[in-house]
Amino acid sequence: MSGTSCDGIDAAAVKISGSGSTLRADLEHFCCVPYSHEMREKLLRASEMKAEEIAVLNFELGELFAQGALKLMHEMQRAPVSFDAIASSGHTICHLPNQGATLQIGESAIIATTTGINTISDFRVADVAVGGQGAPLVPYADWCLLGKGSTSRIIQNIGGIANCTVLPTDCKLEDIRAWDTGPGNMILDECARILTDGKMQFDADGKMAAQGKPDEDWLQELMKHEYFFRPPPASCGREEFGKHYSENFVAQGRKRGRNIPDIMAMATAFTAESIARSYEKYAEDLLNCNQCEIILGGGGAFNPTLKKMLQARLAPHRVLMHEDLGIRSDAKEAIAFAILAHETLNGVPSNVPSATGTRKSVVLGKIARGANDFHA
Predict the structure, then answer these.
(1) β partners of residue 119
(2) Is the domain of 39 the same as that of 128?
(3) In this predicted model, what pLDDT tens digit does every residue of 287-310 receive, in sequence order?
(4) Per the count of CB atoms within 10 A, which of 38, 116, 165, 247 is most buried?
């Protein structure tokens, strides 16, 4: 898994049985391989690259993904032959679902050739091909892992972009609602880089934001962004909340006479408010019930300042971590793509039409054959 935060490659070894509502996924091992500063900078500017640069980066990233998988196997002391498949989310460099287009890089043929293992990738494109947003895709895994029982849940991932999955009590696949709530860590990380002249890549533990004070008037202005008026299904990315947005954000803060902690507090409050307000607009039914749990995952879940703001904003509902339900937050998205790949190999559709906006269920992903393929 390589997300919009561009911090590194998450690799998870997952043992899966069953399918759909009977699916069981057990995490056996997990590791994270940080990107070099050079690679991170490449990924951050990938959307502005020329075609030949993207072609080279596609293969470079595929090799890094392969090495990440091999590192995981080495740590487990397991041979590649003992694995059935590799699931690769790819790295999104352009996402334009309203124009019927999305692009992920990290060449799967390189992964399959280097590791010798069948590799499933390009999960989003099949959904976009039938009119969907191609995102979010994690809701299927959320339903498999957390959709059973008598408690209503909102599963909130806070990566570069924040997205939620709404799971009503005793949820059926067709009951799922899901969408991108807006910015997650994307603006926080970019603001930290700008405000510290690159000395800090993110606000560690939300310490800078904790020393500042949000500006309520400014927050109301920020919430007028056109994305927050798009009803679900909706998805967003760097096109809406990337580097240029963050540069303007910092410029606005300075124009208002705000210091560094205040601007970071504002960026953090913006993420929290966009999440909470999204629930109020599109998940009001769950907020009005007595038993609704908000389950946080992704890197932003480990930001104490952001979590505190969310708890205050969403009271009296319980704000929990994935760990409270026996799931590693940092491994969650990698586990989700492993589940999607498992269903691909079984020929089971795993997009959620109510989440992506298509009326058609489709099998996701493309398979690059490795030496372990029984057809080889």
Answers:
(1) 86, 368
(2) yes
(3) 998 779 999 998 899 999 999 999
(4) 165
pTM beyond 0.85: the answer is: yes
Q: Please name the residue ranges forming H helices in the chain.
A: 37-44, 51-76, 108-115, 123-129, 139-146, 186-195, 207-210, 216-222, 238-241, 243-255, 260-282, 284-287, 304-314, 332-345, 353-356
User: The domain that contains 288 carries what CATH number?
Assistant: 3.30.420.40
| Residue range of the domain that includes 254 | 139-325
Q: What pLDDT was estimated at residue 374?
A: 56
Could you tell me if 69 and 112 lie in one domain? Answer: yes
Residue 66 has pLDDT above 70, yes or no: yes
- Does residue 327 contact residue 145 with C-beta atoms inside 8 Å? yes
Of 141, 184, 186, residue with least CA distance to 165: 141
Same domain, 41 and 120: yes
In-domain check, residue 342:
no
14 beta partners: 27
Q: Does a structural domain hold residue 78?
A: yes
Task: Name residue 99's amino acid.
Answer: Q
- pLDDT digits over 74-129, tens only? 999 999 999 999 999 999 999 999 899 999 999 999 999 999 999 999 999 999 99
373 part of a folded domain: no
Contact present, 309 and 315 (Cβ < 8 Å): no
Write out pLDDT tens, residues 198-223. Answer: 999 999 999 999 999 999 999 999 99
Element housing 25 (H / E): strand 24-34
What three-state secondary structure class fits 164? strand
Residue 153 and residue 105 share a domain: no
